[in-house]
Predict the structure.
Amino acid sequence: MTVIVFGSINIDLVATAPRLPVAGETLMGRDFFKAPGGKGANQAVAVARLGITTYMIGRVGAHSFGAELITSLQTSGVRTENVSIEATASSGVAVIIVDDTGENQIIVIPGANGLVDKEDVERLSNLLPRAKALLLQFEVPMSSVVAAARAAHHAGVKVILDPAPVQLDVPEELYSLVDIITPNEVEARQLVGFPVEDKESAAKAAEILLARGVKCVIIKLGAKGVYCASDKECFFIPAFPVQAIDTTAAGDAFSGGLAAAIASDLSLHDSVTWGAAAGAIAATKPGAQPSLPDKYTFDIFLKERGIRSLD
């Protein structure tokens, strides 16, 4: 039961405000805090906290939060021996604004993440024989994402792609290498060119992505739920009702729950349910990695709702 995450490692600089600012506006905020983040690192922590052996592959800077980020990953149980320390760049930084409804705006400065290359793919290849799934995102160079997906595909390891932040020049080859793609509403719209707001539009978007070669499409519709489609089945799972405080890492929590279930050999339906549950829990807490549920919290959440847990 091993999962590998190939992707970004950032420090998050988070400000809270009553609402999100509009262009050109200076808005008085409320609070500020710093926390480890990055979509790759968040997803690695999300999987590891659920009790699954998790390896992180990526890069941090020798200065500017690098040691702090590695220590944070290790504290959550993530294996970090394949995280490189880059002397010529700073660690990645994400500047995040969160409003009173839990919605957010994010700007990412890649830093060392932008230097992820074939050397990192080689480190990945050495781990693939023991892995059940590989998690990918778009916060490292596209060429490296494609190379990582290709290596995992050839090794028979399930490739799960969170296409965020969306790149409009996704190589056609990548779609054919991906087993599961997990866009949210905004990312799905950017990928297919029309609004994706409900089950009906999600079904149309999924049909297009399946035609591009992806084996399974999971579209996260926020508080509405999750739509899933493959060539074998289609289903919709309503969102778990929670009081959202900060949705910053909810998508990463979803990826963690999904990958943990897949590594545990659960069905696709159960795996999507686990992802939705993990995302719901994360939305009830502030911050990225601090909001990701541990195994105990996750098991209790599932058991209270009559859903198969990790035990």
